[in-house]
Amino acid sequence: MDIRHIAVIGAGTMGHGIAQVCATNGYQVTLIDVVEEQLDRALAAIRKSVEKLHRKGRLSDEQREAGLNNIATASEVAAAAPADFVIEAVVEVLDIKEQVFATLDEVTRPEVILASNTSSISITELGAVTRRPERVVGMHFMNPVPLMKLVEVIRGLATSDESAATVVALAEALGKTPVEAQDYPGFISNRILCPMINEAVYALMEGVGTREAIDTVMKLGMNHPMGPLELADLIGLDVVLNIMEVLYAGLGDDKYRPCPLLKRMVAAGHLGRKSGRGFYTYD
Asked: What is the pLDDT of residue 141?
């Protein structure tokens, strides 16, 4: 299928990053979010990022122009109707994602692939609310999307070989490295990453070390570019908690039990960089 127009549903950190990468690689993009203020913030963030990458020589003049001009916005999911490919990037809540997929199934052409940027939710379950489960697939980008090379491609139980191959080809066209994973809770990346972050929060809660000590050990001792608590703040503590709850519910092992401190911080609204306060404080 010839893909020229991509709809991205959700204009948060991941959604606007995906929209930016699609636009700078020559695709026409419709970025959709029900909150119009979020669309304004997303466009401002995209402009800032595109200009910064262009100044650093990471985007050509042509890519800069495409990134600034190839993105239209809309506040209704129905605006995805003309798209050749759809990437959903709304919050990590199954009910909300299912509503979005059911609506997309109604408004888009039957041959259009519906991809989800979910970091942990079952692709099989999302496909089941549509009449095209063979065309529902996971396309999990990493944060920050314009910089990170990996895309996890997740097959649901009904995902066709053709759909998976199309997503692999699209990821490569976006300059990413696709890696296929099967539809188990957390897939590959978060099955490994989030329990590590959760254990770091337990270590902090139990007084094993300070936040700085925990992050420094992992950076200097394990050569990680960022400590687990710093990384949790970047991802969003609410997102980490949602993933841990999916892992705990889906795999039923106590080693995936979300740390009580993580739950308390999310309840208090201390979500990391996006709220200005998490394990660290941000301007």
From this structure: 97
